[in-house]
Write a structure and sequence with these properties.
Elements lengths: L4 E5 L6 H17 L5 E6 L4 H7 L5 E5 L16 H6 L4 E4 L2 H6 L4 H13 L3 E6 L3 H5 L3 H12 L5 H4 L2 E5 L13 H19 L1 H6 L2 E4 L7 H5 L6 E4 L6 H8 L4
Parallel strand pairs: 1-2, 1-8, 2-3, 3-4, 4-5, 5-6, 6-7, 7-8
Helix pairs in contact: 1-12, 7-9
Bound molecules: phosphoenolpyruvate.
């Protein structure tokens, strides 16, 4: 049975103190009522060690939002996968459209990052998804397949077990426009089919595929009710504990 997951992506928000306050509040809320899904918080690097320690005895796992495409050395300002792992973080989000667009992360660069993350014992939440122009041209399937082929379909079946896919249509991220549950289900089913073609039916059945893009407590139940949607990657609504908990509750 594949995992149901609700993962937050704080992006470049929260000072260390604000992050500690948010994670503490979430930990307290979730301790009162055990969630029916895995809960992950993706945070800036500066929070990782502190929050990994703070959430150690809780249901919450911690994720980085990026890691370097080099193992170590003279790369000023970069943070390696080994460094992320050493904080106690379990996951890293890679391939987010903001990283692809603003930091020019190509499929080749992302492939390096994925390899290093897995070599260092991290699990990867790998983001894919089309732009509005690509959707209007009906290219969403081709875009998703190419992004998978370019950065993760070279992995061995054993390595694949540590991959979570997040389908995030770029036109729905932070825009308030959500894909309809039907639109999301259609492409999730297609992504699962692509995984099956490479890794087989069972591996595809076991792969968690999350939806991301203006997901909130009000639309999460309808999205998560679809058979191929295994949870969400949540940006804006992960920045307030009650909002995030509202989405987690969609799995009740
Ligand atoms: C994201 O950036 O991963 C995301 C889904 O953002 P939002 O929920 O704010 O649309």
């Amino acid at each position: 049975m594949r995992k149901k997951i609700v993962a937050g992506n704080w992006k470049m928000n929260k000072t260390l103190q604000e992050g500690i306050a948010l994670a503490s509040e979430l930990k307290e809320i979730l301790a009162a009522e055990t969630p029916k899904c895995d809960v992950i918080i993706g945070t800036p690097f500066i929070h990782l060690a502190t929050l990994a320690e703070l959430t150690k005895d809780s249901v919450i796992a911690v994720s980085a939002e990026n890691c370097a495409d080099k193992a170590s050395g003279a790369y000023t300002g970069e943070v390696s996968a080994a460094m992320v792992k050493s904080t106690g973080a379990e996951y890293v989000i890679l391939g987010h459209s903001e990283r692809r667009e603003y930091y020019h992360e190509t499929p080749e660069i992302l492939k390096e990052k994925v390899d290093l993350a897995l070599e260092n014992g991290l699990k990867v939440i790998f983001c894919i998804g089309e732009s509005l122009a690509q959707r209007e041209q009906g290219e969403q399937e081709a875009v998703c397949k190419a992004e998978l082929a370019g950065s993760v379909f070279h992995l061995t079946p054993e390595q694949w077990k540590n991959i979570v896919i997040a389908y995030e249509p770029i036109w729905a991220i932070g825009t308030g426009k959500t894909a309809t549950a039907e639109q999301a289900e259609e492409i999730h089913a297609y992504i699962r089919k692509c995984v099956a073609e490479v890794y087989g039916e069972q591996a595809a059945e076991d792969t968690s595929i999350l939806y991301g893009g203006s997901c909130k407590a009000s639309n999460a139940p309808e999205l998560f009710a679809k058979p191929d949607i295994d949870g969400g990657l949540i940006g804006g609504a992960s920045l307030k504990a009650p909002d995030f908990k509202g989405i987690i509750d969609a799995w009740k």
